[in-house]
Amino acid sequence: MHPDVQKERPIGYLIHDVARLYRRRFEEEARAHGLTLAQWKALGTIHWKEAVTQVALASAIDADPMTVSGILDRLEKRGLIERYAHPEDSRAKLSRLTEAGVALVGEARHVGAELYRNSLVGLSEAERQAVIAGLSRIRENLVNLGPEADQEKEAV
Questions:
Q1: How far apart (Å, rounded) are the C-alpha atoms in residues 67 and 24?
Q2: Which residues form a coiled coil (predicted)?
Q3: Each residue's pLDDT tens digit, 38-54
Q4: 41, 43, 138, 156: most buried, per Cβ within 10 A?
Q5: Where residue 44 sits, what CATH number does that domain have?
Q6: 3-state DSSP assignment of residue 36
Q7: How many domains is the chain partitioned into structurally?
């Protein structure tokens, strides 16, 4: 194996491992609130987008629409969201958070901020900025390699 490839390979493994550990910590917290990680993500996305269709939500949380339908059913039964008719498309439903959902998202934000702070312990501000810049460049490079590049160009 070429020496440069050997030096670069650990970056992918580290990115994967860090993402896996972040996901695991969030899963643990979601379980503590009686939710799955997918439900946790759906609540956050509904909060950010306020009125979101099931199809858009599925895309945002990287799940299929049928899975999202079940997620929304469970969140609605718990009183965390409400669904209502789309004003311009009677076939589509939109979702929004209830007061209980807003409160839970507030807790999730606190958990996320604490996890973020704890994950960066020991890094200087310069190191943090270098990590952000490096990961942003890697993401941009990967997006430009795939079909997402065409989608992002069309959106501009």
A1: 20
A2: none
A3: 998 999 999 988 778 88
A4: 43
A5: 1.10.10.10
A6: coil
A7: 1
Is position 72 within any domain?
yes
**pLDDT exceeds cutoff 90 at 9:** no
* CB contact burial 61-92 (16+ within 10 A = b; e otherwise): bebeeeebeebbebbeeeebbeeeeeeeeeee
- 8 confidence band (pLDDT: 50, 70, 90): low
Domain extent at residue 78:
3-119
Please give the pLDDT value at position 156.
47
Residues 6 or more apart from 80 whose CB is under 8 A from it?
Answer: 43, 97, 98, 100, 101, 104
C-alpha R_g of the chain: 19
List CB contacts of 98: < 8 A, sequence separation 6 or more: 79, 80, 81, 82
